[in-house]
Amino acid sequence: MSLFPLNYLLILPRLLRRAIRCQLSRLEQAPPDPGRSFLLLCRSLLSRSLGWLLAGFFLALPLLFLLLAILVLFGQAPDAAVRAFTETSDWTLSQKISPPPIEYDAHYLCTVAVGGHPVLVKPTRYGLRHGKRIVVNRQLCVANAFEQLLMERAPHFHRAVRQFYDTHGYPLSQKLTTPLRADMTYLLMKPLEWFFLLCLYTFDLKPENRVALQYTGR
After folding, report:
1. What value, to the nearest 5°, has the Cα angle with vertex 173 and ends 136 and 119?
2. Which of 42, 75, 122, 216 has minimal Cβ neighbours within 10 Å of its Cβ?
3. What pLDDT is attached to residue 80?
4. How far are the Cα atoms of 132, 172, 173 from residue 188, in angstroms, in the given order?
């Protein structure tokens, strides 16, 4: 299938060269016409354009300096245009390696953190759960911090809550297959998140420290 476009690329420069030569020969053979003085001037200038390559190279340097100055002024690295092609994965000029898939289907709040629209669910960082990398947001960290506090203060009640959660949470996560459903779940969980925060600030001496340490492996 690549034979036709390859032949096209080989033939096109020859056709262009032949057409330009034919046009130049016709202009040279035509009798001088006062009305074509401007066209003759343009032709004479273009016929000497082979020597403009070096001039174009030097004239491009001020333009390059101006572009670099604009990039630095707006906080971009000078090689930002090149890095757009190299800081990728699975492409010809890529220098990065694609990360392994992130687990998100074992916890429906994790599903929200990964599958929802980032503008709404606001994923904050990567975390570790059971030795696997996941994406977390504040709602997930608050819920897990509340569960940890509940496990410390009321272990029997925590076991009952955990059993109910394991029974219904995972089947629900299987239905959160679109960003819109994940967004709806995030919004429905907001009142519970506020309740969890109220409990944390009431019964924990350093609630934000507990929230910040969730899914860090510490």
Report:
1. 45
2. 75
3. 66
4. 27, 13, 14
